[in-house]
Amino acid sequence: MQSELEGYRQQFEQITQDARDLVKGLTEEEFNWRPAPGVWSIEECFAHLTMVGDVELLHIERAIDEGRQKGILGSGPFRYSALERLILRETEPPARHSMSAPKRFMPLHNQPVTGVMPTFFHVQSMFLLQLQRADGLHLRRVKVVTPISRFLKVSLGTTFAQAAAHERRHLAQARRVLAKLPKGVPLPATH
Length: 191
Description:
- By secondary structure, the chain is mostly helical.
- It has 6 helices and 2 strands.
């Protein structure tokens, strides 16, 4: 596997492990607890990542298929545009700017941990599969539609990097919620 893709593979594997560690032992109430009205719970962070990841994976799969069909091959190292580097800087935690999720990526609240986390972990395994499928492609020249706009396309390499950065951003958000969980007090279910 190309070294750049290997780096992304390691990032997604680390994200998966960090997510397992973060939710380990949480009750349904803790998983769904909101620190304040309008502030996402741990559940909402993972549900959002799953929603976005599903769309990203669809676009990635199509781009890989098209890149293979057109023979857009390359071995790297790849250099990315200033715009793509800016997108990555703005996505990577710590968050420099607060961004609202588009309406279609707003998660439902109060979903069970047994429903959200297996789906999130499946999305992670699909990212790993697409990384394998991308091996040998020119990661800068193969373009992927973004989940935000079908009119904006970025390179396949940037897409993988941005997806991992976006996941780290919301893992950091979920960790902040976890740090605020009341200790020793049963939490009421929130609605």
